[in-house]
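A further point concerns the way the authors explain their paired sequence and structure data. Each protein is reduced to its one-letter sequence and a matching series of backbone shape codes. An entry of this sort, consisting of the sequence and the corresponding backbone structure tokens, reads as follows:
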Amino acid sequence: MADALIEHRFPCETCGSDLRFDPASHQLVCDHCGNQQVIGGTRQLASGIKELDFRSAIANTLDAAEIEETRVVTCPNCGATTEFDETTHSAECPFCATPVVTDTGLHRHIKPRGLLPFALDEPSARKALTGWLGSLWFAPNGLMDYARKGRTMNGIYVPYWTFDANTKSAYEGQRGMHYYETKTVMRDGKREQVQVRKTRWSRASGRVARFFDDVLVLASKSLPKRYTDGLEPWDLSALEPYKPEYLAGFRAEGYQVELADGFTEARQYMDRMILRDIKYDIGGDEQRVSDVQTQIGNVTFKHILLPVWLAAYKYRGRTFRFVVNGRTGRVQGERPYSAWKITFAVIIGLIIALITGYVIANNQ
């Protein structure tokens, strides 16, 4: 296992200030002197990213080079674990806006193998957020103003697992074929003939096989899953091999869902897809599946990081959280409501209803 702490800091070659990754230029830039520095190495696509053996990881026999330690802080409110450099002594949690004093600790984890670099800068993400808020009926004006004029959003790399696997499944079930019988029924004292649908069942069995590629599982517990699911799809074909330079100026969240638990969730998805394949293989009008025996092999995985712009706004004692896909600008978050706007809309609706009723009554 790695013993040394991994630091992700990149000083400017010209003035010594910290560089940050710029989504627009895909380079490291210095906000102090304007110097730009190309990220080293040749850009590669996802096909060039090495997969790791799942069983080796579960048995704790991964190569030491696949493990690293980073300095992290854990939020006492939401439990988010994010990286901080050694010069940071206090901060606000980017996930829930809770003030935290950093209790420096080390997090030993499997290194990321790939990431999607940010493609949107902070102003673009803020524009997407304010546009989304503006499209919501009954959102408080104060919250929208705060979003437009408030503190900058936080760029966070959120951890995910991806899993690949070969599956072969044998199944037993039944195929249902619809047919119709004519029956006579009484309606309003009259005899009528109607068609009644019935189903004829026959035994069915067989085998299906599927290769699963990059089954994506969220490895964070800091945000509701419905938010992160709503940010999909992610262009995983554009994954690049992990380079710490992409993290310069951003934060990275440590994974909270362990690898084995992540695979359990991935299996649930795989089982749903296998069941769909089986029903298609059975055919007919309806299907019943009584038994499925699945063999799964060649399971590999990657720890990857996906870019999210995050805003956590405290408004009238409540925390509203919004997330923006750092590649596409897709927005998800908690829907705020303005009580006075709802009341005003109800009053206007009642007035319109009264006027309409008055007009109708006088025209009769």
